[in-house]
Amino acid sequence: MYRLVIANRNYSSWSLRAWLYLAESGVPFEEIRIPLFTGGWESAVARYSPSGRVPVLLDGDLAVWDTVAIIDHVREKHPEAVGWPEDPAARALARSITAEMHSGFFALRDELPQNLRARNPVDPAALSETCRQQVARIDRIWTGCRERFGTGGDWLFGDFSIADVFYAPVALRFVTYSIDVSERAQEFMDAVTGTGSVQQWIAAARLESESLPFIDQRMPAEISPLILG
Questions:
Q1: CATH code of domain 88-206
Q2: Largest CB tally within 10 Å, which of 88, 96, 102, 104?
């Protein structure tokens, strides 16, 4: 059975992405949870992850790190796992926006970090111009996908896909900070928050005892020791 190494559920959005992918794909796995910024956490992560980061998927003696690599590895072994939209145009768009999420939106990650236990409404005027632009860009992505390809279901492309895995944690950030979005974008957020596996993750996050002040207090990147994604 696979083992998935994750960090704090409350704070680690990349851990959530890998976990959500496996859960929604129906692939059995066990969890190894390593709370970050606690005693010995760096050496604990290094036991499993050559990069020193999580998530990491352990497949026997093989370690696969980074969510993109984890998804590719699982799909090769489990063709029935969650994949891309079938329509070629939808599939191309889904891959593009997923890559955009994986490689960008750093101001949003810094200024609106994942914090599932919190409810901290943020005045948009308090965000940087770059962050506001990135919030608007995500709204356009969600709205555009829903309008073009999402009419057959609740997700960005109708049925649940890899693109939804990558944007689900962003929807949860918008809930935490009361970020207003357009009607079609809100449909996607409602799909995320109404999903049983996401609710299971959030319930477990609320039971965690660790607190990371640099996230709880939304410290800027030059103070924060790590952007958790």
A1: 1.20.1050.10
A2: 102
